[in-house]
Batch of 2 targets.
Target 1
Amino acid sequence: MLDGVQRYEDGDLPQERRVEIERHLSECENCSVELAQLRSTVALIESLHEVDTPPEFTANVLEAVRSERSIEQPAPSVPWPVGAILGIAGAVLSAVIVTLALSIDLSAVAEWTTVLKPSAVAATHLGRLLLEALLVGLGALVQAMGKPALGLLAVDIVLLAVLLTTGRHLLKGRAVFGMVAV
Amino acid sequence: MPCEPDDVLIQRTQVGDLTAFGTIVDRYRTRIYSLAYRMLGDRDRADDVAQEVFIRVYKALGTYRMCGTFSTWLFAIAVNVCTDALRQKPVATTPIDSSEGGPAHESGGTDPHSAYQRSEMQERIQNAMGRLPDQQRLIIALIHLQGHSYEEVAQIMRQPIGTVKSHAHRARARLKTLLAPCMEEDTR
């Protein structure tokens, strides 16, 4: 019954059930005592005083914060539309950098063509670019969700992975260019 | 000076204004300290925990987004810090030494006997609270001492509202038994 009384006190019951319980409470002494005791219990709990902090509390917190701040400043909050625009701009820039990095060493592509058919080279190139766009886009999404540092890190990792997996031929000179540009 | 809204103080803190953060601390320190004290039953630990709460708040303000109420976010951090502290050492349920100064805001009447009785009653209620499981005590403190609604407590504790209500009902039933002698004395 106590659970029903508590739900009644919480105002959780539909009107019909409330009326039923009120009728029951007026007839049943045990239940009306239960309700009275429940209300007294709540009154006792609510009689607990607030406990004040020591007078130097705020000064101590600010002192602790000052010493923390000498190590790290709280990062300023960037509204999400700005973060999203920055993220997308960063992604586009990253994609341009990757494309430039891949298109510089044409001699390496020429070497590839001796091994692979031109159409296969083009397909490999296109597939790689699509993968890069996907991964860079993922980085931008993370960035747009309010984790700029994580987003930039993701983009950097993606670029590094792309440059490393492009092959020894394409890496010559271009990895350095790509990393510096990023 | 007019009372500045939390959001304004937060924005000022985010650009490095420590005075604004001091105002936030002053605004909430009694509530956070009281919650910590009711959860831990020890003033020194409550002091450490309340300070840790505000330090964590400061560190997290950089990524804080004003999509809910600041109070709910602040209490969610307080709940986490209290829970961490309770994991290290459970709540103290022994009577609080009167040499600690007793509860603050002790007011009304100068009669030493009635002041002693009030203080003793406070200790008994605190001890009864201390005998509840941590989750139940936390919910009772948030609802009945901090004035949060069930919805707010559900948000603070990241639990379904039904679970919060169920904990609250069990806690009140247990407290009714534990505090029955106090109620009998009261009616005498």
Target 2
Amino acid sequence: MQTDLGRPRATSVLVSAAVTVGVSGAALLALWVALRLAGLDATRALAALWEGSVGSTYALTSSMLVRATPLIFTGLAVALAFRAGVWNIGAEGQLLAGAAVAAVVGLWWEPGLGVATLPTALLLGAAAGALWAGIAAWLRTRFGVLEVISTIMLNFIALYGVGYLVRGPLQEPTHVYPQSAPLPDLARLPAIAPGMRLHWGFVLAVLTAPALWWMLRATAMGFRIRAAGQNADAARVAGQIDTARTTQHAFLLSGALAGLAGAVELTGVTFALYENISPGYGYTAIAVALLAGLDPLGVVLAGLLFGGLEAGALAMQRDAAVPAVVVSVVEALLVLLVLAAARWRSASALLTRIAGGAPRAEEGT
Amino acid sequence: MISAAQSFLEASVRTATPLALAALGETVAERAGVINIGLEGIVLAGAFGGLVAAWGGSLTAGFAGAAIAGVAVAALFAFFVVVLRADQIITGTAINLLALGLTGAFYRGLYGATGAALSIPTTGTTAVPGLAAIPLLGPVLFDQPAPTYAVYVLAPLLWWWLYHTHSGLALRATGERPEAASVAGISARRTRWMAILLGGALGGIGGGTLVLSQAGTFAEGMSAGRGFIAIAIVVLGRWHPLGVLAAALLFGAASALQFFFQAMSWALPYQLFLALPYVLTLLVLVGVAGRVTAPAALGRN
């Protein structure tokens, strides 16, 4: 258990960046081998992966960065929760709750709200994510229900809830397709440049990271969260910290970030609510947060990496007939390699925290 | 009405079978102090392994292949958790991603990119002579595929093993007080290795059941959250094999309600029925709160 709560973070970002580059190369090599073993055209697949992510300005701005946006938001959500010792596996459900409420605001309240529609949709989307996380937080403090289990259950409930909404109250007017009507213009996040898919939500995500980093590092709230996550007993006894309350706040804030991911995805990318609006962003976010060493600034880097991988995977499926899902092999290997590296490089306090002393709930998992 | 009730109950047992297999395996692992979130990936790997082995051989080979695939994935989990002492939740999450990607790639690689579903004959049901003739419950409980009967045997067997044998006591001690257990000469590492591998075999067979007794084919991500549900079932069943069996049946029944209401042609949105088992699980978890304790060392390395 480490005690240096206030250690400088710049080095940890460098370490996580170096580790990221190293293990990314190894993971891509492993993907190449796996594709060869599966009898697929591995070289062509990796070329398509490159083309579809950073191979052109268009791929970079209209695919990779767009894809990275929800991963950064949800990655921040998971990093914050894990820092506080909360096993929030529910970013996926919180994202869906955020998207659903943002859709309600955009579709139903736009006539009354006017120019306030977009900010309201984003705010209430974040609130919906916090509320969805709040159910699990309440079940944990009131009844001792493990949040690992409850958040996973809530993910499924949110998924079927959205499925119901897009076939029921929010279904498009012709009642043919399981999706909502398109959002009015006032409910849409503007593109960064005309004709570009990249929207201002990306900038919002990138700016949220240093804000969260500063909050964790420099505020009393941030100190309480880190203390509660690293050693709940010590924080309670020696630090006079109400750890139950602190972890609850972190849980809600984590849900709000994931809810914002959903609201931004809806208002910036899809412009309509679908059942499969998220291809598992909330689950990938766990890998993003871990690769980042639970550091908000690292989350941006890891989010960009994973955004590139997923954008490239779509190109891979299109051009090389390799199912996009194989990119999760790379994501898994990244996490496993980081875990293994932590074992063999125990000198690094950052990595040790991920592998051995990861924050956990006081009642265990 | 009778036939609607009967098909509802049959569907309950059918849905419960793979969940019960996976959950019984997870019970053993959790009793040894290991929470394996990677069970979702193990179930998926078992489904794929079952298809591959059955395609080349027989249905029996299919179940063996499912178990082997589950054990292989579980071994990777055990290596990270027991040998490298990596965090259990994080490792499990990575294992799930890995299994999803590998099965997706290999399915496409082995069976071509045509997208045409590869189908194999399924086991069908085997009626137990005599017992299957009991009105209503006979066909429900005793005219099912072989894996269902395996569950009937396994649950009491695991109960007897955990509570009435020396090695079962050693396993539970490892999950409660690993330090004390090791003072008593029990190797926590070896015990956890064995528990995780057994959990992998049962989770794999659970996944294999989906392909070999139910769907007759594989689809990308076809475990569809069953591994996660099995983990919740372990909590519902209070880490007790017989409780886990009951919890799996309850979950199966909640899932099967949708068929029942469809048969009764009630005009309720089916998504609400799909969500029902998960809502019910949360409610039951609240209901058993305070009266149920996890193994004390669960999740700790």
